[in-house]
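Fold this complex.
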Amino acid sequence: MSDSIINLLFQGTIETVVMTLVSGFFGFVLGLPTGIFLFLTRKGQLLENKISHQIVSIIVNIFRSIPFIILIVWMIPFTRTIVGTSIGVSAALVPLSVGSAPFIARLVENSLLEIPSGLIEAARAMGAKPLQIIRKVLLPEALPSLINNVSITLITLVGYSAMGGAVGAGGLGQVGYQYGYIGYDFAVMNSVLILLIVLVFIIQISGDLLSKKFNHR
Amino acid sequence: MIELLNVSKRFTTKNKTIQALSNVSLTVEKGEIFGVIGTSGAGKSTLIRCVNLLEKPNEGKVIVDGIELTKLSDSQLTLERRKIAMIFQHFNLLSSRTVFDNVAFPLELEGKSKSEIKEKVNSLLELVGLKEKAKDYPANLSGGQKQRVAIARALANDPKVLLCDEATSALDPATTKSILQLLKSINQKLNLTILLITHEMEVIKSICDKVAVIDNGQLAEQGKVEQIFIHPEKEITKGFIQSSLNVELPLIYQNSISNIDSEDNNPLVKILVRGNDEQNSVIINLYEKFKVKAKIISAHLEYVGHLSFGVLLLELKEGNTNEALAYLENEYANTEILGYVG
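Structure:
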């Protein structure tokens, strides 16, 4: 393997890691509050509100129904207005964040549903305000499960970013697409594969370790 | 201190309405331990949740320390709840926090300073005897220790009242006893008003000053514990009292008992004795009046305050047993002829 190929793989790995982490971050910025909102407005919860819950729930479901590769293409005009281009790593961040947010929202909602309802009741009985309940009860109690969801999300994003590579997002996906699909290069193709597997394993293992560290149940 | 006035609560599901509480009124005086006893589904959980308005009653007033909670806005109510502590059957400790931080939780809600929190939490952990467990997580504690932490947490904001929701129902008898003792000592030390709900007569008997019996969403009767134990009026109350007194027929009698009332057979009777000396001298009375020698087969006597009550299982020997039976049925509540033995 030539130096330039190794350089390309290295560059691709960095790009994939950046896309995964940054879009994961923005995905959570959008998805976490949405997930909390979905949970709180459920029937019998703190801010029960059937109409708001249903509206947000439908929006989340619509975005979850769109296949990612279609979402990227569909969002091109929006992406252009935000980052000024529709090609490259920074352009990929927009659909990746938007695509992962509804997924994250559902994961967060499910994590919060696992919290025994007695804890929320106890916090209400102690006179905790809704924001205090979110900050001091819901999020800390769901933390181990939320960390697991972060790993699931990041692994999904590794996959999504590779898909983005096919339409010019950069990263290992693009390397694999060019050296695999366009002209089949056995060594490069398999290096990309191994790098992606290693990336996913690192995410999964560190997620498991962190989740375990914060789990006192 | 706590006053419920004609409180009613309904739960509506898709196709039916359940009347959980109807027209419940009760008053708990300052410094009192007031127990509400009822079977599961009788409405006692709803009742205690109506006091801090975790459940909002459909009708009626809830007044705690002169403040009519049912009139307050949500945010006013939240602040008022900080003075109404509550402990639960399943403890409801935060698994993500250490023992220390769990007790600190209500103080954090109030925005107390770190040093204030530290001082208060340490003194509370000392009070409940768990100082050395401060850094442990709840998962590593026994049920009794968890409830002690919950009690310390409940006391953190110097509450006016303490609500206990089946606080000992998930604990074994020995631990139940120690938790009840702790509640009693807190009641005496801090003059803290306690309202508890339970399905166990043991709990009422051991720490309560007053008791109310709840059945089907209504208060069947209420009064001082001694009075209710000695003179229960409603069947449901008698049932609770009897269930707390268990006498079983010894095995050898179970094998030889029959329904045949003959000359050679002696009747076996179960009688409920309560309170006064007249009743407690049943054996002497039977002998003096009917020359009947009553043999005690089994007995269970309890003391509430200075009054005693309980169940006696007697075998009536010799003398005029028929008249003795008539006398017992006349003078003692719930006299029951179990059968005859040879």
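Residues 38 and 256 of chain B are 37 Å apart (CA to CA).
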